[in-house]
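Appendix B. One record, verbatim.
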Amino acid sequence: MKIAMIGTGYVGLVSGVCFSDFGHDVVCVDKDPRKIEMLMAGKAPIYEPGLEDLMAKNVAAGRLAFSLDLAAAVAGADAVFIAVGTPTRRGDGHADLTYVMAAAEDIAAALTGYAVVVTKSTVPVGTNRAVKQVIRKARPEAEFDVSSNPEFLREGAAIDDFMRPDRVVVGTTSERARDVMGEIYRPLFLREFPVLYTDLETAEMIKYAANAFLATKITFINEIAQLCERVGADIKQVSRGMGLDGRIGNKFLHAGPGYGGSCFPKDTQALARMGQDHAVPMQITETVIKVNDEIKRRMIDKIIDLCGGTVNGKVVAILGVTFKPNTDDMRDAPALTIVPALVGGGAKVRVVDPQGRAEGEALLPGVHWMDDAYKAAHKADCVVILTEWNEFRALDLGKIAKKMATPRMADLRNIYSAKDAQKAGFEGYVSVGR
């Protein structure tokens, strides 16, 4: 199959590369010359483990190419995927569909024969029908169908998620489009991964419902963690005890500084707005958004209390600022709330993150970037673990403590224990829910 992938952001690039590895001919298109130059040079504009190697393999095999020319990529394509950004619209919380509709207009002008126009971007219910209307208005004679194909990729594990998915969701109203989508995902069907076919609206809703539910699990366990701190319970054992129940499961039950990233914040807001627009308030989701913001602020108080009630003049070493490990994504990361508050409180903040500096330098002014946790801890008053990168999971705590002016640690990912910290020489140690 010939596929055009419009957009080389996280979803578009990973999806395009993986489709090419399925054996399809894929052209990934973007309007940003800088991105295309990087991709043609074999460099990915995002960090995702294994992505550049998979890119190189499929470019060498002649199945994958990158281009600024949308018209050439769309001409003769069996499927055209829209994988552009849908950020939160300023002022009202709705998903901004500007880029999606602009892509639909460009695709309409470029169609040369039958194609399935597939929305891969996360979009509110009704968007795919709106895309169809845009194309039909621009090209009444065009032969095409639309399909909704939401993604369920976890940053840091996206390739494995694409190749071994829990499910693939395909929304369409056309048998012809279903056949095309079935052929595109044929390698997964042959390996018996479930492919769920639905109507357009159901496919769109599945994505939002799934993300809102996962965000709710995270927020729920974080609220329970707060109660654990008051009553003397251990959130790690509580999470384990809950997760062993097959009806609940153990994923997304890890207490921490709140959720962030490219999906949960904007998708929960968009779902809440959809509910308001249709007079069906999403009260649980609205509460999740509110509580998640409060959790981030509570982490600030936890650090300040550990530092004796003020961070003014204190040296604070922050380990990890991306919203999760194995990604360079800083979107809505807890660090974007916590670090500026520390800087604003007069702290001298040092930051270490294996991949976060490229985005973080512009987003976190007033901090000093370093490349080594031990150097960052030198004469520091507090070390804060914000992101659980592997290199922060096996620190020599004794070595860290000896380097510090005042050995104190805020372990906001529960990597260590109070016993470990005390044994290593830390005078103060706090975590989440313990």
